[in-house]
Amino acid sequence: MTGAFDDDPTDNAARPKGLLGGGLPTVFQDATVVVKAPVGTTLESIPAPRPPAGEGDLSPDEEKALEACKAGVTNLHQAFWIAGKSLETIATGNLHRTSGQPNFADFVWTNWEISESQIYRLMDEWRVGEALSQMGWNPRESQVRELVDIKSAAGDRAAVAVYDAVARTVAPTGKRVTARLLGEVARSLPPLSPESSPAEITKLVRDILAPPAPRPEPSASPKSAAEVTAGQTGEVSTNGSGGPVHTITEVGNNSDSPIGESEAQPSNPKESAAKADDLARLNEALALLREAARSISKPAVRRALEQDPQTAQAVLDEIDTNLNKIGRAVAVQRPT
Fold first, then answer.
1. Which of 61, 76, 276, 313 has the most CB atoms at less than 10 Å from its CB?
2. The pLDDT of residue 270
């Protein structure tokens, strides 16, 4: 009895040997034209292991062998959504009805030793895996499994949006998307619904993974070197003759001054705080713009338009509107 990824030595040339024992050539087996399976999808398309042809650069044959092997390993990750779609097609069409095993789960176990719980998990996940692969991602089955609750509550599109947002947020940092990370994000998200847009989900994910930096506290009035030293040591600096070294503000506040200096006029603390807040807002906006510039690319925009043209166009229009607002806001005369 063979498993899901096993080779059956009893196979003959007439039986298709694509992925999962029923791969791409299956639909063509009665055709008069022979269709060759893509490299990496059959065992025959992977070269046999052999020692290096030499030192240094790969030979043309070794380059081809490497590409075939890379395709074969890639199929290991793609297998879960290919298998899920295959299983759902069999179940929906009752294609096993003449196999002598009317029970679908028994039919699958006999042929591939896939448990009933795994059957329905694969059938439930394949659409998310396929959608992410079309967007250029290469998800693992264990990763998509972490999004099942989101998929059940808000649909496939929401699950895809969460993965895509996580992947695009961590990509600039050099980190990898992992099942653990996706699980943590999924548990941290507020309840999503089918009406939750990809743009809303992206913002929620980014707030979890990269929350905005807290605004700095309003800066206090600058202190003199003597005051800083005094604050650190608990002592007041002296002028070498035993007397304290007075600052300008201390002199101005001295009502016993022999020359009658007027008291210093303190600046408006509310005005200083407002200026500090304005600068903090500009720095915060700059940080957000830098993050946006790192996460947006033409390929990502094209993929979004292909996935959901109407929603993506609305998001792009809003981006244009806000960029225009920012442009008008910063178009002020600046000191030279």
1. 276
2. 58
